[in-house]
Amino acid sequence: MELVSIPGWLFTESYSTVGDLAETIALLLPENISAVQGEEALHYYIEQLMNLSAAGEARKKNFITTSWIEDGPC
Known about the structure:
65% of the residues lie in helices and 0% in strands. By secondary structure, the chain is mainly α. It is globular and about 35 Å long.
């Protein structure tokens, strides 16, 4: 909601209609072409998320929001 500047009620209604959180997020975020594709992307994100396991919430949020903005939903 924060990234696409929509009110909470609209996100909730969209999610209720779509029925899948990942699909709702993918539909709301702008489309971008990722430099990392397919299995390479999966490996990259798993590795990055494992490295962030002990990080603070702000750092985790920054990684995820930056990834969505730069790469789009995977």
